[in-house]
Amino acid sequence: MSDKSDAIAVMETIRAETLDAISGIPEEKMSDVAFGSWSVKDVLCHLASWEQFAVPDLQRISRGHIPQLATLRLEEVDEWNAGLMRSRNLFSLPQAKFELEESRHQFIDALNAQPEGVFATGQMVRMLTDGLVNGEKGHAAEIREWRKQQGI
Q1: Cβ atoms 64, 117 nearer than 8 A
Q2: Comparing C-alpha atoms, which of 126, 41, 36, 51 is closest to residue 88?
Q3: For the segment 23-56, what is each residue's pLDDT rounded down to a tens digit?
Q4: Alpha carbon 26 to chain centroid, angstroms
Q5: 64 — alpha (psi -120 to 50), left (phi > 0) or beta?
Q6: How many structural domains compose the chain?
Q7: CATH number of the CATH domain containing 50
């Protein structure tokens, strides 16, 4: 991704792929365990959580401060995810879908607030954006594979 508009376009393309991957899954199947201990609904909450986590980091970066992501060690990611999911596993499917949509709007707004040259000068912004895109792309593929296995 070379600049903000490219990053936003890629993010919107990946989100469309995710929404396509979940389209047509019966509502009662969205909460079935599908990926380790997670359901499709949990994956949606997970994607929204990371975007919500990244918004204040974009704001920190624009102030010249250290983003929280930079302080998170790789071995802490699973623990962090587990904690987030414990706090979100009671979300209804409509709330999970709302959170997914709203978190994207918030992230795009925060990304748009970054200076134009942020991708040329700010590797952390690129890392945040690429991480969200790659993570979502992987989860969309997992959902498609699960659907195939389930015959959905």
Answers
A1: no
A2: 41
A3: 999 999 999 999 988 999 999 999 999 999 899 9
A4: 22
A5: left
A6: 1
A7: 1.20.120.450
